[in-house]
Design brief:
- The protein starts with 14 loop residues before the first strand and ends in a 10-residue tail after the last strand.
- The chain has a six-stranded parallel β-sheet with strand order 5-2-6-7-1-8, with helices on both faces.
- It is globular and about 45 Å long.
- The protein has 191 residues and is an alpha/beta fold.
- It is built from four helices and twelve strands; from the N terminus they run E-H-E-E-E-E-H-E-H-E-H-E-E-E-E-E.
- The protein has a domain of 132 residues: Rossmann fold, CATH 3.40.50.
């Protein structure tokens, strides 16, 4: 046997994937698609969503067209560590509802060899960056920005337009509070 021949073992390299866009663009649908493909590959999967997201099914992430996948509800991103020890692939939906510590959580999970897939709004209803998404976009190896369809003109929509009167930055809802709009038809007046 050649003494110069070295056998290399590579640690499984983790990474972060971010799926972002406006409401009704298909972010959760894409997250579910990737998670199901990981299952086909016989990878151990865990999916999480924030407690505040109570729009559809309690223990499932659910897309606007009713596709769903089982998930665990968490209050704080730090809970992901203890609940995903055996997971190889971690899905996180509605990332914009978490505090900025989600960035460190995702970074540490990826550093430990896990594939982390995060979906969330990159802009709020005022078209301002929605934390912690900008920081996640900065550290992600893979980014997918999905566009919806403008309900006014049919053009690609990258903005979320609020149709209800609330001025709160966070208002959990769906068609009852929001519409997808293009740049031209998105209107927001600063108060």
């Amino acid at each position: 046997m050649n003494e110069n021949l070295q056998i290399r073992t590579f640690k499984k390299i983790g990474h972060i994937e971010v799926i972002c866009g406006s409401m009704f663009s298909g972010k959760t649908e894409e997250l579910i698609r990737r998670i199901r493909r990981a299952e086909i590959a016989r990878q151990r999967v865990k999916v999480f969503k924030p407690k505040i997201d109570n729009r559809y099914k309690e223990f499932e992430i659910t897309s606007h067209n009713a596709n769903s996948y089982p998930s665990e509800i968490i209050v704080n991103a730090d809970e992901i560590y203890e609940k995903s020890v055996d997971a190889e692939v971690i899905g996180i939906d509605e990332a914009q509802f978490f505090e900025n510590n989600l960035v460190d959580v995702c970074q540490n999970l990826a550093d430990s060899g896990k594939r982390v897939i995060v979906a969330g709004l990159d802009q709020d209803y005022r078209a301002k960056p929605f934390e912690p998404m900008p920081q996640l976009l900065a550290i992600a190896e893979y980014i997918t920005k999905i566009q919806a369809v403008c309900v006014i003109c049919g053009a690609p929509a990258n903005r979320t337009h609020r149709i209800s009167e609330s001025g709160d930055r966070v208002l959990v809802g769906a068609e009852n509070h929001y519409e997808a709009r293009c740049r031209i038809h998105h209107t927001f007046k600063e108060e």
